[in-house]
Amino acid sequence: MNLSAIDWSALFHATLPETALEVTALLVLIVDIAFLRRTSHWLRFRAAGILSFLGILFAAVCILSTQPITVMADGMVAISPAGKVVELGLLAITALCLFFTFDEDFTDHVGEFVALMLFATIGGMLMATTLHLLVIFLSLELLSLSLYILTAFNKRSIQSSEAALKYFLFGGMSAAMLLFGFSLFYGIADSCNVFQIRAVIDNAPAQDLHLFILATLMVVLGFGFKVAAAPLHWWAPDVYQGAPAPAAMFIGSASKLASFYLFWNLLPANLALPLLVILAAVSMLWGNLAALAQTNVRRLLGYSAIAHSGYILLAFLGNGDATRSLLPALIFYVLTYSIAVIGAFAIASIVERETGSSDLANFAGLSKRSPLTAFCLLIFVLSMAGIPPLAGFFAKFNLFALFWQQQPGLWWLVALAIAMSAVSLFYYLQVLKHAYVVEPAETAAAPAAQSASMLTRFVLLLCALVVIVLGCNPQPLLGLLNHALNGMF
Amino acid sequence: MLAWTIYISFGGALLCALAGKRAAFARWLALLAALATCVVTLVSLPHLQAGTWATVVRVPWLPSLGIEYHLAADGISVVLLLLTGIAAVAGILFSWNIDHRTNEFFAFYLALIGGVYGVFLSADLFLFFVFYEIAIVPKYFLIAIWGSTRREYGAMKLALYSFIGSAMVLVGLIAAYAVSGAHSTDMVTLAQAHYPAGFAFFVFPLVFTGFAVLAGMWPFHSWAPTGHVAAPTAASMLLAGVVMKLGAYGCLRVAMMMLPDGLAPWAHSVLWLTSWRDVFALLATIGIVYGATLALVQRDFKFVIGYSSVSHMGFVLLGLMSLTTVGINGAVLQMFSHGVIAGLLFAVVGRMVYARTHTRDLDALAPMQLARAIPFAAVTFVLAGMASIGLPGFSGFPAELQVLLGAWHADPVMTLCAGLGIIIGVAYTWRAMQRSFFGEPAAAGAAPASLPPITFPERAGAVLLLACTLAVGLYPRLLMQWITPAVASPLFDGLRKVAGQ
User: Which of the 8 DSSP states describes residue B298?
Assistant: First the structure.
């Protein structure tokens, strides 16, 4: 690569949002360690959060004001309208997760926690704005490494460490596979640029495809791990259960959004099709069936996340060029799911602080303790279950209907997805049953006083309202996504 | 105007939810909201024509998918809207004694009513489905929180059956949307779209069965008795009164109107069945006889009524599957009739008897001499039982008569079996009535059990329902003037073509 050919100032402009977040992360670290070390968690989380909000706001403004760039520096930077949407989504999700750290007190290393979350966001944002295999791998590792540490952050909980170790071991393996796949791609196509690789694949004679197939297989395996698609999901339930709540939220939402979008760009769809069909079907079946047996709400959410990955994978199975039209449906699905899952985790974390654990039984009497929280839980859970008129239903309908139009031959996947959604109702209703119907056992210790601050409850209610509004009137967001995503590349 | 039935219900639900601990406020608010929806329906009657599916509201909703917020009403909708209003008011009157989490109860109750109104008014399939699912969720909570015998089991069973049914409908909906290529979910557009050969053969039974689950079709009926028994009185009344009608209405309005080709004769007959019509008619007939037979041997009073519901809903499905005008007319009338009568029966059993005696065991009720302890309940039950049997003068008579007439054209053997079901119906009603109200005292001369008297709201609700069944029974034209033109409208031309009329 000819370094002198790169316009460094333009490159700086293009990566300004990431740079801004980086500076913010360092500032958060400095402020927290230098000035707030001896103050309360209450103040430290809020100070770090507010600083981060400012950085996030600045980054968002930068993203909104930059023009899309097709390709720069051999594809190292490529800002598409779709990538911008994903970046904005990531920032919003990160901000939301940070809001829910405000009531937490699981760690004394507040600055480090928040800074790591920002680093993870930077990794995700880079994933959305590059077409270069090396940068992809580095940003993916930035995201993953931050998440491993975030998962292990609750040093008082042995589950947290166990989950992090599992996550790390599986993640390391998948990274190795991914790297192997990437190196094959590079070896065959003599380029790290995703576009050029795709062009080589398209022009390759059929007998030369087997190496590509091997490379694609490796990439799909790495990808399946990132989005917790069965049978590569082993880490997910443990992480969802053991990680500190804000970290689990982030893993369930932002990390998925970034990964889905990245692999959407990366995967040569036709080569990966049969494998993805299997991943999708197995995820739906395994995730939903395993969730039926769970007694811990967070673990249950972990299995349901696997199932949702299965539904979302349908978006990858579109028909050739028309596949593009599934991207808005994919992003809409992941965004609405993210809000619901973040909200559900926030409530699980509230229950955990009030009663000591997030087992189903501990949700008993929630509607009596705090009707508002219970109502929000109702909305989030029903949205995940796909009950109209909530956002999750429309996201499913939209994705399934478009998919069926494109791939009538794979109609059975839609039928399976809908059937499995009906199955999922059972465990979602279990959660709501405990929140609304079951009276708390008399032996249970009286729950601690309301641990959720007014602000937290307000944000929760806001999320619930967003889920309702996006379900009743999805057109504005969907129109925006359609508009932004159809003009890309 | 009619759209306000939906908005008033949901608005009332929201207000009730926010009412906090003010129980009396929630009660009165719910009653007022339900009455208001009745008034709205009655006031808009003169503006409607029975024979046309007239648009009430039509605005684009999701233009990128061609989905519209489209409400419309014709004669069939009107009959069911009236039923919904009546059942809603009566249900609230019979739940006047709810004092556990009252505001939540009425919030869920009104949300359910709003969903039901929405289904009966939807002319867009997507919208139809949205309201259909909205109606399911509150049912679960109504039963699980305020129910009695095995309430959590009954509620979960009912919810899962409902959701599996609606999942089948959703597959059909997405298939029709994707395959027709119409870029619209408007029901009339979808009905006129061209589907590939064989499409209706697979999708029609899927959608029909999905809806028929909620209509209590054998062998997917088993949620109904357990659900009814577990539910609090008002929820049983709504379940039997309107929710089972949602299923039957979906069968008619969606499955049969949209995919009439699915009823066409098969190329080969399987056993002696030659089309899906035969299959579903057979299942309906089995349901009639099976429900009636099981009702005959129940010991739990509410199970008797629960199984009788399965039996009576079989008449609705049989009428629909007769594919004759008179049969479908009868089916729609039977939806109304059963809604009122079953509501009344559940009110007597659940509210008047069970809430006072705390038992529904027919053997335990026998020595209490309820006919002397609570004579009003006894009289109500005798009248409701007569209506349920199908005696002339009550609404069940013209309804079931028309169903049988229609079915006779299609299949005399099944009609005879259905007639057998009516006879068993006489037997189980008689048995339940005799054991519960007119049992022998434990010892000669023993005083009847002393029970609290029947309250005013109960009397009002019972009189309302009795008046409806009598009015329709004595003067069926009251509703037939709405039903007949609607069934004869061009919307159902496809059905007539298939039936060869």
Answer: -
Q: Tell me the pLDDT tens digit for each residue of B194-243.
A: 888 888 888 999 999 999 999 888 888 888 888 888 888 888 888 888 89
H/E element holding A461? helix A454-472
Q: What is the predicted pLDDT for the residue at A321?
A: 66
Residue B243 is given by DSSP the state I
Pairwise CA distance, residues A103 & B369, whole Å: 62
Rounded to the nearest 10 degrees, how much is the dihedral formed by the CA atoms of B221, B223, B228, B230? 160
Residue ranges of chain A whose pLDDT lies below 50: 488-489
CB of B437 within 8 Å of any CB in chain A?
Answer: no
User: A67: how many CB neighbours lie within 10 A of its CB?
Assistant: 9
Most B-contacting residue of A425, A428, A436, A465 (CB-CB within 10 A), to test interface: A425
Lowest-pLDDT range, A223-232, A424-433, B5-14, B111-120?
A223-232
Within B390-500, where are the H helices?
Answer: 396-410, 412-437, 456-474, 477-487, 493-499
Q: What is the pLDDT of residues B378-423, one digit of tens each?
A: 889 899 999 988 888 898 889 989 999 988 888 888 889 888 989 9
Q: For residue B289, how many C-alpha atoms fall within 13 Å in the half-sphere facing its CB?
A: 12
Report the chain A residue with the minimal C-alpha distance to residue B163. A422
pLDDT of residue A488: 45
pLDDT at B159 over 70: yes
Asked if A95 and A53 touch (Cβ cutoff 8 Å), the reply is yes
Distance CA A435, CA A457 (A): 17
Q: Identify any residues that bridge with B58 across adjacent strands, giving them in sequence order.
A: B70
Structure token pair of residue A478: 């969907």
- B59 forms bridges with which residues in the sheet? B69
Task: Give me B319's structure tokens.
Answer: 């009428």
Mean pLDDT rounded to a whole number for chain A: 87
Residue of B nearest to A432 (CA): B141
Do the Cβ atoms of B308 and B295 come closer than 8 Å? Answer: yes
Asked if residues A118 and A25 have their Cβ atoms less than 8 Å apart, the reply is yes
Q: Closest Cα partner for A306 from A404, A237, A208? A: A237
Q: How far is B163 from chain A (nearest CA, A)?
A: 6
CA–CA gap between residue A277 and residue B121 (Å, rounded): 39
Whole-model pTM over 0.90: yes
Going by C-beta distance under 8 Å and a sequence separation of 6 or more, which residues neighbour residue B67?
A: B61, B124, B126, B127, B184, B185
At A448 the pLDDT is: 58
Rounded to an integer, the average pLDDT of B261-266 is 83
DSSP SS3 for B354 = helix
The two three-digit tokens of residue A244, written as one number: 């500190």
- Among candidates B237, B219, B218, which has minimal Cα distance to B228? B237
| B300 secondary structure, DSSP code | B
**Residue in the structure block whose two tokens are 């997507």:** B126
Answer yes or no: do B171 and A382 touch at CB < 8 A. no
Number of helices followed by number of strands (H, E) in chain B: 24, 2
By three-state DSSP, how is residue B221 classified?
coil
Kindly report the average pLDDT of chain B as a whole number: 88
Question: What are the counts of helices (DSSP H) followed by strands (DSSP E) for chain A?
Answer: 21, 2
User: Which residue matches tokens 């059975």?
Assistant: A412
**Integer Cα distance of B297 and B311 in angstroms:** 14
Place of tokens 């809806």: B211
Angle at A282 between CA A315 and CA A168, to 5 degrees: 90
CB-nearest partner of B141 from A388, A418, A436:
A436
CB contact under 8 A, A433 and B144: yes
- H helix intervals, B438-455: none
Residues A350 and A370: their CA atoms lie apart, in Å, by 11
CA distance B52 to B61: 23
Q: Which of B227, B337, B212, B341 is nearest to B287 (CA)?
A: B212
